[in-house]
Design a protein that fits this description.
Length: about 220
């Protein structure tokens, strides 16, 4: 147990350059508090002490702003950076060496029973505000851009951005134009631009028809 606690602290040092010493991490890092509370809640959940497990989960949510269902399975060296607004569903499975930023949702798509939350592989980074929904698999070595919404399986060694999430890099090869976290696709704006172009074309066609009609009127005189 103490080995695992030391490992959790070491991960914070590795992932957060602002971390200065162990006592500061133990006392002030809400992501670490949420993970430790989840381990206890998950143990109780697996031993059918479900009510107490959920109470611990909700108390942890109140203290940290991070909601992890006690049924979720989480691997080693899991790191939540900042963490406010993170939600992890009951049937979610998270591998080793995974990092989540604030506002990430690993959720379901409806009221279906059974496996309804995503599987996250090893060495995955999910950036701020990303949403991953449904019983899908995010494979190993995947990076999900901030604000992305992922609704389908993602292959290994990929970078995903956009709404809905699209693979832009895979195995070091550009699949689509790569975007950084501040330049994610805006489908609403794209639709507006498309409508503007259609209106422009209709205006041009209307002007051509109008000019043709005026010519015919003059010839008729």
């Amino acid at each position: 147990m103490f080995k695992r606690l030391r490992e959790d602290i070491a991960v914070v040092f590795d992932q957060d350059p602002a971390a200065r010493h162990s006592l500061e991490i133990i006392l002030t890092y809400s992501g670490l508090h949420a993970i430790w509370a989840h381990r206890l809640a998950h143990w109780l959940y697996n031993h059918k002490v479900i009510l107490i497990a959920k109470i611990i989960s909700q108390f942890s949510r109140f203290l940290t702003g991070i909601e992890i269902h006690p049924g979720a399975k989480i691997g080693r060296r899991f790191f939540i950076d900042h963490g406010v607004g993170v939600v992890i569903g009951e049937t979610c499975e998270i591998g080793n060496d995974v990092t989540l930023f604030q506002g990430v949702t690993l959720g379901g798509t409806g009221k279906e029973k059974g496996k309804r939350h995503p599987i996250i592989g090893n060495h995955v980074l999910i950036a701020s505000g990303a949403t991953i929904l449904g019983s899908i698999t995010i494979s190993n070595n995947v990076r999900v851009g901030a604000g992305s919404v992922v609704l389908k399986d993602i292959p290994e060694n990929s970078t995903v951005v956009g709404v809905p999430g699209q693979v832009v890099w895979q195995n070091g090869i550009r699949v689509k134009n790569d975007l950084n976290h501040g330049e994610l696709p805006d489908p609403m704006n794209e639709k507006i631009q498309q409508m503007k172009e259609e209106i422009r074309q209709l205006k041009q066609e209307f002007e051509r028809l109008k000019e043709g009609r005026e010519v015919n009127d003059i010839e008729g005189l």
